[in-house]
Amino acid sequence: MKNFHNRMIFLYIALLFIIIPVCQAGEKPILIGGTVSLEGKYIETSFMVQNGYKLWAEQVNKQGGVLGRPVKFVFYNDKSQKNLVAPLYEKLIVEDRVDLTLSPYGSPLTMAASEATEKHGYVMLASAAASEQIWERGYKYIFGVYALADRYFIGFQDLLARQGSESIGIIFENTGFNISIAKGVRKWADRFNLKITYDNGFDDADNELPIILKQVMKKNIDGLIFSGYPPECYKFINLMKKTGYRPKNLAFTIAPILPGFYKRVGTFAEGVFGPSQWEPDERIPFPGTKQFIKDFKDFTGKMPSYHAASAYSACQILEKAIIQAQTIDHKKIRNYVSSFDTITIMGRFKVDHTGRQVGHNPILIQWQKGKKEIVYPGKMSTSQPQFNSSGE
């Protein structure tokens, strides 16, 4: 426990130089750079991403490194601010002369980071980004690990349709990731014959969400989707709790999959759905899942979210490409990554010619009796979905 607290103190230094113990004396380390969010709206999810990276590095160095060389991280604090990201990646590549880069958390920051990495021909595994916009720019060196955002709520909408629901509502933050989610909700609503009775985006959560909630309360909605980052999700939940409003079925992005969600919102969590890329459940049928859960918990004192698993998987994919190429030349690494059709702890990894992830599909969780349960797809479910749940 003492070691964990020491790590946490170290994490909050504005500039991190995370130096993993050298595995072979005299070998020049492979420098890997990136940014992490030690402040701002992404702090909770970025914690998971950076520790997925760090766990991989600790393990690979104990096993002799990559191509016989230890790996060493150079991380800067991006403060969850998009405008800081591209200059920091420029610094990493031009001044620090890192050999490889890792992505930050979130679509907005990854969009910015990839501007620098693409310019310099650096491969980037987007370990924590799902906005469609990232892969609409014709870039050649960025590859997705997540299933794309427009597929996030297929499971929720499919289940609603199967149990006879007729209407659905979508509230979304006006950012690339959440706009992509809303676009997908509209597409799949049409296919599942669900009528969209509310569809509205917001920019200023503090001022707009109270108005939006009043509008939603006047609608007849069988299933409501709120798409935003955790701070916005919690703001909307607090507003709902104050008014006593609860639609028949309720789903949020990101926040429900975090380990501390139930503790944060109490019994309101009961019945809440959320899309997930992966879950820390030993019944997940992908090789290495059980060991990763144990290792991450030992390493951080916390259960991993899918953000940690994706970051760890991205490192494994990068490692595999380097080993197959027998070099850290980015053109050769790119060719291997683009050709992979493989299984990681996250599931299948396969990208198309644009770098979009096409092999992996999201799952759906629901909070039931204080626990997260997988309720979709059926072949991976740990419990049956429950509908028309009531909160506190």
Can you give a write-up of this model?
With 392 residues, this protein is of the alpha/beta class. The chain folds into two domains: 2-148 and 284-350, 3-Layer(aba) Sandwich (Rossmann fold); 150-281 and 363-380, 3-Layer(aba) Sandwich (Rossmann fold). It has helices at 2-11, 43-62, 82-95, 107-119, 154-162, 176-191, 205-217, 230-243, 261-265, 289-300, 306-325, 330-339, and strands at 15-16, 30-36, 71-77, 100-101, 124-126, 142-144, 167-173, 195-202, 223-227, 249-252, 273-276, 341-344, 347-350, 363-368, 371-376. The strands form five sheets. A four-stranded mixed beta sheet has the order 1-3-2-4, sandwiched between helices. Strand 14 and strand 15 form a beta hairpin. Helix 11 crosses helix 12. It starts with a helix and ends in a 16-residue tail after the last strand. The relative contact order is 0.13.
List the SSEs and their pairings.
Layout lengths: L1 H10 L3 E2 L13 E7 L6 H20 L8 E7 L4 H14 L4 E2 L5 H13 L4 E3 L15 E3 L9 H9 L4 E7 L2 H16 L3 E8 L2 H13 L5 E5 L2 H14 L5 E4 L8 H5 L7 E4 L12 H12 L5 H20 L4 H10 L1 E4 L2 E4 L12 E6 L2 E6 L16
Parallel strand pairs: 2-3, 2-4, 5-6, 7-8, 7-9, 9-10
Antiparallel strand pairs: 1-3, 11-14, 12-13, 14-15
User: What is the CATH topology classification name of the largest domain?
Assistant: Rossmann fold
Beta-strand share of residues: 15-25%
Structural class: alpha/beta
Number of contiguous helices: 12
- What average pLDDT do the residues reach? 91
CATH H level, superfamily name of the largest domain: Response regulator
Give the CA-CA distance, first to last residue: 34 Å
Number of structural domains: 2
CATH architecture identity of the largest domain: 3-Layer(aba) Sandwich
> How many beta-strand runs?
15
Q: What does the main sheet amount to?
A: 4 strands, mixed
How helix-rich are the residues, as a percent range? 25-40%
CATH class of the largest domain: Alpha Beta
